[in-house]
Amino acid sequence: MSHWNTWVAEQLDRVRREGRWRKLIAYDGADVTGRVDGRNIVTFASNDYLGLANHPQVRAAAHEAIERWGTGATASRLIVGTRPVHLELESEIAQWKHTERALVFPNGFGANLSVLATLGVSGTIFSDALNHASIIDGCRLAAANVKVYRHGDAGHLEDLLLSTSGPKIVVTDAVFSMDGDVAPLQDIAALCVQHDALLIVDEAHAVFGLDIPSLTGLQLLRVGTLSKTLGALGGWVAGSASMIDLLINRGRAFIFTTGLSPADAAAGLAALRIYRSEEGDALRGRLRQLVDQLIVGHPSPIVPVILGEEGVAVAAAQRLLETGLWVPAIRPPTVPVGTARLRIALSTAHTDAMVQRLKTALLDQLPGNCEFLHAIR
């Protein structure tokens, strides 16, 4: 056996021994109801929080774009990959986020890589301990030093800022994808002004919107995705005109990849217009009701059920699946060791009856010492 065959086999054996083996599961469904291995299920795994991936206007926009421009952008945005719909989408994102310009990418992961690798050429990046993998990898690509502050701890961030000289960037998720909690943006923004630090906020899961203070002197770059709240695919960055020009000219994850497909750009634009309309207000209100039905006052549609041991989480997810409910088990390295969990994601595509069914199943299936049970009883 060659070196590489041996090495791959050893790595796979290690994954199995650690109890972290993963495999792809085909889900045959367009919304929260579908089939898995021939079984009818309701999924609580989707990030399509407002149900826009299956909205008639969003689907129609994608179809029309395919008829006009075909299925792919065919080249990078700087070659021949920019279509009128890209520019229209960027203009609307900038209006939405109250910035001078915006730039769209094929995915949100690439947006974070490009931003951090382009801007983090010197100084120090301060990153929340539970930031998304795309932020972590962007920090690794950057030439700047990286300091990690305790999750959501503005006091620890302040200590690190005070003890560090040179250019500073603070980067944080707005809503954390595995915990569903929110960053203390008011405090972080004030610290950034005080220490002349650029603030980068990843809004990927911020379906209910953000409260970023309008502070004099705040230097802000906003990053997000089209693939969750807006139900399409792609990433975006919104900020000053000069920041966007720099990303166009220096952002390797933008320059050296084929542009966002016209269909996804058109779908994202249609979804954004719904989001900003009265219908969007109603959808967010409905989502808020569903979250409160499961756990009152939780700040996002991402609801974690911390179970600790990986085997316990995997077994709980399997029991739920056998009852027709798909709630994924999240394990290390996605979350820290000892915090394996079920990750519930709610959507306006769910009905009251579906959420009640989930709640009943959780009360029945979870271990009696699970703290989450006390929160939903």
Describe this structure in words.
A seven-stranded mixed β-sheet has the order 3-9-8-7-6-4-5, with helices on both faces. It is α/β, with parallel strands linked by helices. It has helices spanning 3-17, 56-69, 84-97, 108-119, 133-141, 154-162, 185-194, 241-250, 252-255, 262-275, 278-294, 310-322, 352-365, 371-376; strands at residues 33-36, 39-43, 101-105, 124-128, 145-149, 168-173, 198-202, 219-225, 235-239, 302-308, 325-326, 329-330, 340-345. Strand 1 (33-36) and strand 2 form a beta hairpin. It starts with a helix and ends with a helix. The chain folds into two domains: 22-49 and 301-376, Aspartate Aminotransferase, domain 1; 55-275, 3-Layer(aba) Sandwich (Aspartate Aminotransferase, domain 2), CATH 3.40.640. Helix content is 43%, strand content 17%. It is built from 14 helices and 13 strands. The mean pLDDT is 95.
Properties at a glance:
377 residues; alpha/beta; Aspartate Aminotransferase, domain 1; 14 helices; 13 strands; globular
Distance between the termini: 56 Å
CATH class of the largest domain reads Alpha Beta
| Strand segment tally | 13
CATH architecture of the largest domain: 3-Layer(aba) Sandwich
Task: Give a nutshell description of this structure.
The protein folds into 2 domains: about 20-50 and about 300-375, Aspartate Aminotransferase, domain 1, CATH 3.90.1150.10; about 55-275, Aspartate Aminotransferase, domain 2 (3-Layer(aba) Sandwich), CATH 3.40.640.10.
